[in-house]
Write a structure and sequence with these properties.
Blueprint lengths: L1 H10 L4 H32 L26 H4 L20 H11 L4 E5 L5 E4 L4 H18 L4 E4 L4 E8 L2 E8 L6 H19 L3
Antiparallel strand pairs: 1-2, 1-5, 3-4, 4-5
Helix pairs in contact: 4-6
Keywords: Membrane, Transmembrane, Transmembrane helix
């Protein structure tokens, strides 16, 4: 009863109904104050500027520009025809047009492509996807090799390309034959002979 009497004295209430009402009002006020305090804290946290984290610079590796592989030197490219016997199909390479004849040459000797170039690097005929590049680069390389050692055929092993010369009258052309393996001796002779037939056939029409 001492607690009840104390509440009566604290709230100044004289009857139980008044005391109950005062207690209810006090409870509502306490809840409201707690809610208000929580909202004030939330607003403070939300709108208080936060310190930005320091940026850490990552060390990026230096990117070096890609370099083109150097062209093989004369001594590196100077390979003799590969040893072994090669079966050469009996196919007439001279066809109705120069391009058809070039395609037949390419197929007969199992080449990836074949380009005929002049000594100054101009394309005469080709089955390559990059004829201008093949003619310009490899005609120059052939002449460099020829200065070192005069041969009609060279195999550039690092590029998978065979180079050979064909002479017909006053013309001297350079053949650029792309194939992973070099030509056997009989293939090197045969492809030069067949190329000469094609050159003489279509040169006579000019």
């Amino acid at each position: 009863m001492d607690i009840v009497d104390g509440l009566y004295g604290f709230f100044g209430a004289g009857d139980p109904a008044t005391l109950l009402l005062d207690l209810l009002v006090a409870a509502v006020l306490a809840v409201s104050i707690a809610y208000l305090a929580r909202e004030l804290y939330r607003i403070y946290v939300e709108y208080t500027p936060k310190e930005a984290p320091a940026l850490v610079k990552s060390e990026m590796p230096e990117v070096k520009p890609a370099t083109k592989p150097p062209m093989p030197g004369p001594m590196e490219a100077m390979k003799t025809p590969v040893a072994g016997n090669a079966e050469i199909p009996a196919i007439d390479v001279v066809k109705g047009t120069l391009q058809e004849s070039m395609m037949t040459l390419t197929q007969k000797y199992r080449l990836g492509s074949l380009t005929l170039a002049s000594q100054d690097g101009l394309v005469i005929a080709s089955t390559s996807k990059t004829p201008e590049q093949d003619a310009a680069v490899y005609s120059g390389l052939f002449q460099e090799l020829y200065k070192v050692k005069q041969e009609p055929y060279y195999y550039v092993e690092s590029k998978g390309v065979s180079l050979y010369s064909v002479e017909s009258g006053a013309q001297k052309l350079i053949g650029v034959a792309a194939r992973k393996s070099g030509l056997a001796p009989e293939e090197a002779r045969a492809v030069r002979d067949d190329t000469k037939k094609v050159v003489e056939r279509f040169a006579s029409l000019k």
